[in-house]
Amino acid sequence: MGLSRRDCIKRAAAVGLWGCIAAPLAAQAQTARPVVLIVGDSLSAEYGLKRGSGWVALLEKKLGAEKIGATVVNASISGDTTAGGRSRLPALLAQHKPDVVVIELGGNDALRGLPLDMTERNLAEMTQASKAAGAEVLLLGMQVPPNYGRAYSDDFAALFASVAKDQGVALVPFLLKSVADVANAAELFQSDRIHPRESAQPLMLANVWPVLKPLLK
Question: For residues 22 and 28, what is the distance between their CA atoms, to the nearest angstrom?
């Protein structure tokens, strides 16, 4: 049975209404920006630096310059350990629904002399939770000075590569490459000799960017 003229007009009006609703929703879906969640410690939390000068802030500027539409959420806390990051991560994943999770933790574990197997286990669990939430993962490796003992220093540096390999995720072997391992390293650190100065932040970003960029595609 055919529709009456009146029914045809009513149906057309209904379709038009839904079209008006659906179009903005479709456009919104197409323009959704990927979220990059940084879970780190003072090295990512701008400790001792003016706001907006840390490597994470420089990353946001880099994304703009590269015309990559991504939102950066910096959930870094000075003094945090891998245990702290592991406990905070579930809520962060639920709140921000990140596409990429960058884990920059472990340095404070070493400063406190915590067991390496615990650090490795925490990083592995954070990586697994992030992957289960649908996110790509990037681990930022760290090293400690040789005065911690050669065996401890070597084993600590190696655990990041071990987690990355076991979990199949991206890795920056040493966040402070070209900062802590150069002849003029003292000039690149604050007076505490632990936290990099503002002049070192672009070097840190240069270590991260080539590995992070492919994860944003």
Answer: 10
Q: What is the pTM of this model?
A: 0.85
Tens of pLDDT, residue by residue over 132-151, are 999 999 999 999 887 788 88
> Do 76 and 38 meet the contact criterion of CB atoms below 8 Å apart?
yes
Q: Say whether 181 is catalytic.
A: no
The 8-class DSSP code of residue 3 comes to: P
Catalytic choice (42, 44, 76, 130): 42
The tokens describing 169, both together, are 């995720």
- Say which residues have a Cβ less than 8 Å from residue 91's Cβ, sequence separation at least 6: none
One of 153, 154, 162, 195 is an active-site residue; which one? Answer: 195
Catalytic annotation on 192?
yes
Residue 96 known to be catalytic: no
Please give the Cα distance from 192 to 49 (Å, whole number): 13
pLDDT per residue as tens digits for the range 170-187: 999 999 999 999 999 999
